[in-house]
Specification:
- The chain has 248 residues and is mainly α.
- It contains twelve helices and no strands.
- The longest helix is centred in the N-terminal third of the chain and has 20 residues.
């Protein structure tokens, strides 16, 4: 009796045509941003290079800014996937902070040559490219969720008053690293990596010390400052009313 032929392995499912087209437009835009600069790249040029109609390009991305938002979302999705072994590994907070940020630098490295093209627009607080804008909410919330997992998976106890704010504060620290990285011209952005290695233990120690009673007055003051001054789009809290001027 002859053996039955082995079943053929299933072919991987192909991405839907719409997703393929969207990815093609995004990748074309990123290439043109690098070659020509963000300001000099038009939606018409992107459509022409991608081999789609201008109307089709606008169907997937309603503006050039939305293309950049697509880049933000892609970068954060890549970081979320790449950082999973870090979040499932060592419980030491300093190690988790360090390796999470180093992983971000690894993921972002291919985009470094044209990062400055975005930053001069993202630095405008009214720009939809700002990391604090409503348009950036998906990428921002994904990044803050990673910081939450960095904390919750560690063996470090934190001050209860800061439990809700710490992931947001750590994300702001990451934004500071991003700014340093944008302007870092060292080979392989080595200075950015050294900055992460040097600061991660300091940040972890500061977070750990915040729970001690002797520092509670300072923690309460920090909590009040964060509540009042962190951007509303970051904390999700209502913007506090202006403090009335003191009476003469």
């Amino acid at each position: 009796m002859t053996d039955a032929p082995a079943p053929k392995p299933a072919r991987p499912a192909k991405a839907p045509k719409a997703e393929q087209t969207r990815t093609l437009i995004l990748e074309t835009a990123l290439r043109l941003f690098q070659e020509r600069g963000y300001d000099r790249t038009t939606m018409r040029a992107i459509a022409q290079e991608a081999g789609v109609s201008v109307g089709n390009a606008y169907y997937y991305f309603s503006s050039k800014e939305h293309l950049v938002q697509g880049f933000y979302d892609r970068l954060e999705a890549e970081h979320t996937a790449a950082v999973e072994p870090v979040l499932a590994g060592d419980r030491d907070l300093a190690v988790r902070i360090r390796d999470t940020l180093l992983t971000w630098l690894d993921v972002a490295e291919p985009y470094h040559p044209f990062a400055t093209q975005f930053f001069k627009n993202a630095a405008d607080p009214d720009s939809p490219l700002s990391p604090f804008s409503p348009e950036s909410v998906a990428a921002r919330e994904a990044a803050i969720a990673i910081q939450q997992r960095v904390l919750s998976g560690s063996d470090t106890k934190t001050a209860p008053e800061l439990a809700a704010q710490l992931p947001h504060l750590m994300w702001l620290m990451q934004m500071g690293l991003v700014l340093f990285w944008v302007y870092d011209r060292s080979p392989g952005t080595e200075r950015s990596r050294r900055l992460v290695v040097r600061t991660a233990p300091l940040v972890a120690r500061t977070i750990a010390l915040s729970r001690f009673r002797v520092l509670r007055p300072l923690v309460r003051q920090l909590h009040e400052v964060l509540e009042e001054f962190l951007p509303r789009t970051v904390t999700g809290a209502a913007t506090p009313a202006s403090t009335p001027a003191p009476r003469p």
